[in-house]
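yo

u said u wanted the structure for the complex thing, so here. seqs first:
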Amino acid sequence: MKNLPRILFFLAAASLLMLFVFPMWQITLIAPQYPHGVTMYIWINKITGSEPGTLQNINILNHYVGMKFIEPDSFAELKYFPIIVIVMSAIGMVLAWMGNKKWWIAWLLAGVILCTLGLYDFYLWEYDYGHNLSPTAPIKVPGMAYQPPLIGNKILLNFLAKSWPYVGGWFVGLTFVLGFLAVLFQKKTHLKNEEVLAGGRDGLSGKRLLSDSPTH
Amino acid sequence: MKNLPSPFHFLLAAGLTFAFVAFSGCGQTGQQGSAGGGALSSDVASKVYVAPGKYDEFYAFVSGGFSGQLAVYGLPSGRLFRVIPVFAVDPEKGYGYNEETKPLLNTTHGFVPWDDAHHPELSQTNGETDGRWIFINGNNTPRVARIDLSVFETVETIELPNSGGNHSSPFTTENTDYVVAGTRFSVPIPQTDMRISEYAGKFKGALSFIKVDKETGKMSVAFQVLMPGFDYDLAHAGKNKSNGWMFFTSYNTEEKNSLLEVNASQNDKDFIAAVNWKKAEEYLAQGKAKDFPANYVHNYYDESTQMATSETIKSVKVLDPADCPGMVYFLPTPKSPHGVDVDPTGEYIVGNGKLSTDLTAHSFTKMLKAIDEKKFDGDKYGIPVLQYEAVVGGVVKEPGLGPLHTEFDNNGNAYTSFFISSEVVKWKVGTWEVLDRIPTYYSIGHLMIPGGDSKKPQGKYLVAMNKITKDRYLPTGPELCQSAQLFDISGDKMQLLLDFPTIGEPHYAQGISADRITPHVKQFYKLSENQHPYRTLTEKDAKVVREGNVVHVYMTTIRSHFAPDNIEGIRVGDKVYFHITNLEQDFDVPHGFAVLGANNAELLIMPGQTETLSWEPKQEGVFPFYCTDFCSALHQEMQGYVRVSAANSATALKWWLGTEPEVQ
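structre next:
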């Protein structure tokens, strides 16, 4: 399996495209009157609900405490995030073909930075929705904000809000796992002759990971 | 005690006297109710206990009789879920009051807001109940209604021409090809002003075959069979081998028009009319039917426009048995048979001779043979009368007094209700032996087993529908509730499980396992599919439009406001139509609409639906309107005002939500 690392890296890049097939995040609100919960799905390019009317229903519930209406059209992120994902995925595929480990690592680091920025953006969005409340809201609870958790569960008045990555998000995780493995095997494969002979067993060291891959 | 011939009174009185003597001898236990009540074990309680939040296993659809409604219960709990208005107006739901459903109650006699609804019948596929629709008859102003079981609403009604009272109806064939509608009262056909005493020979009975569209359920009168002037009481379709035949009981074969309790009880045998509807279809195709002038109304609710419309039909195809040999035969059946019930195999046709001491089952195989061999006892108006001995398949000897109806289980047993002896008797089809009997409290009419009149009974439970309750419940004045009783029939012995009160007077009922209905129950109407001509799909589109003295208010509802909620410029003498669209798209979020001084009713608008209430203000002033269905935490705030000015005033038409506009 000489090509295994390349295949793995290619799959890592392709895995990002699953963001267009599955939502990346889900936020579920559960209350006694909503035993099955009201679930909102955040995709890379849209926001949907478990039912066609879900977004409207969440907006109706939110308006009692003065939260803004969630209007998917108003999010610039939903327009440029897909472009970033496609570009990243395409670059990743080209890099997989090239087989340059240095660039692979750089690509993975760029991915980590982009994900962190994305999550930070998500946090800001949640903060804004949870804190920027209408002064004429029918229900005002002093000191209460309605920011859902970035990740995890939180009780907001009568609702339990659950915020967790969904299938698309899992594939992003898979991208990093596969990318990491690709880098790992790439090293091993190419160091096999020299390192084994040298008695080096520490093929996983950071130094080696970051070092140039030897040529054939 | 309703509609009971007087010989019954005597027997009943005798029966009740006996019951009284028997029970007064039981000693005083402090138990207020009578027999059966104290004998129940905790085991029985657990059989009807459906824990909070759990579902019943079966739906039961029980007719409301003179309430004109259909009640939906759960079995085995006996809990009432919903009352569906069918032939009766219902101000709670706006049914028959809002502009959308008013046409459903149109007839050639005008708007008839009431009827006597007796027999619900589920649609069938391959002889099994399929949970798509349920039909029910209106006995008074002859009609059949169709209820859509995805929404549990009446969606269609059709009037029957040439009919006097639609009682033997709406029994279905095994693929819902037809539901039938036989007239209980024969009348002049076509109707005319004539002497009543010319009844015999001049009055006729029409048996209508209503075609049901396979996809939409839409009904149309395909043809009528013109029968002698008897009273056609009940019906049931053949099954399996007897599919293609429909059986109708008759009484008053004496053709009398007065004092029927005596005069119509003279013949030793009346008839079950066996109608070969497949043959009738052939005659129809051959052009044997005559086009009779007629006058009847067909009302249909379009789910897309959410409006019912009426059309009047002026002609009907009529087949005369005298011109159509082989289409109708008479099976002589003792003493004014009431119910006619066909066993699941389709072989036996049970005639419940209500004044007979025996129960007669005709054999379908023997009937065909007798027809083949022409074993006739003459004819009636050209219809061959088969020899009794040649068609009878078996007799249950002296099972009880006053047999009315029979249903079947899935193990070859039959269960017959006995009105006079107030009991259910279980007997074996084929051996005709009585296996078990159990009393009912009191005076049972119909009985029902889920699927018990289909090819595949679902068994397990039997529901008795009683005419009299006397001491069974807390008294509520002279008018007492009527009731149903639930029996477990899964064992050899029937066991009484539960009494539960019913609405109106229960006649027939239908039962079906819940899993045949729940998968296609609609949760709300999709706004995107709303094609109501006066819909308002967003708050931005809300408006008020004046057309002379008619004002159309295009209004929306959402938790928790109306848009608009302030309206000015209405004048005394205007006819205001509030067209209200519920913008909600969630399960169980209806909104109500009520306006002060409305002479009709409220509206109860389901999510995604548009309904219209007309309002004719008679006084100047400012009148509130509000939501009647507790919809949300701010339901009490869901209100608004209409300003009504003098008839000749110049108040500008204006409407708003939140901020009053300068000009509109």
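The two ends of chain B are 63 Å apart (CA to CA). The longest strand of chain B covers residues 290-302.
cya
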